Amino acid sequence: MQSTSSMTCPKRAYFRFVAPTTLLLSFCFLLGAACKKPQIPEYQAFDNFGLSKISMGESVVSADLKYYNPNPYPLQLKRANLAISIDNKPVGTTVLDTLIQIPKLDTFYVPVKMKVDMKQLLSNALSMLLSDGVNVKVSGTVKMGRGGIFFNVPVNYEGKQEIKF
Questions:
Q1: Which of 5, 103, 144, 157 is 20 to 30 A from 150 in CA distance terms?
Q2: Phi, psi (degrees; rounded to nearest 5) at 131
Q3: From the CB of residue 49, how many other CB atoms can be counted at a distance below 10 Å?
């Protein structure tokens, strides 16, 4: 007969090795899921279109780009670098370097200002007045994230935008 003091309990060995390993793997899984790249917000429209500093050479255009955050958690937008084209003609670029709080599962606005070459804009003016909308293309990158972890996310949107005068 063997002595009970020389035998190790199988349950103790199991809990010494498997329980901490399971806990560590669970923590790594949760950390990996939390650091997953967020979904790209969906472009919806632009509002509050305005012109300032109007001149024949260059003018300043401002608008609020409306987006929807499909993520089930809030985000922060740290930086945006976007190029905007109307009817396949580049009209300007904008750089946003302001922290914007983005609510979860809700719409939000990104204010943009850009210098526009008036020759490009005026070449489209007649077609914009005669049609019910224009083809708008927004491309570039935005830096967004949460909890201090930010990702560069590409933006590539193209669609018809209704123009109201």
A1: 157
A2: -105, 165
A3: 13
CA distance 3 to 9: 12
What percentage of the chain's residues is helix, strand, coil (to nearest 5)?
Answer: 20, 50, 25
Residue 5: alpha-carbon gap to chain centroid: 63
**Which fold is adopted by the domain 42-162?**
Immunoglobulin-like (2.60.40)
Domain ranges of the chain: 1-36, 42-162
Q: What is the DSSP string of 27-50?
A: HHHHHHHHTSPPPPPEEEEEEEEE
Taking only the tens place, the pLDDT of each residue in 69-91 is: 999 999 999 998 988 887 788 87
Q: Are 149 and 126 in contact (CB under 8 A)?
A: no
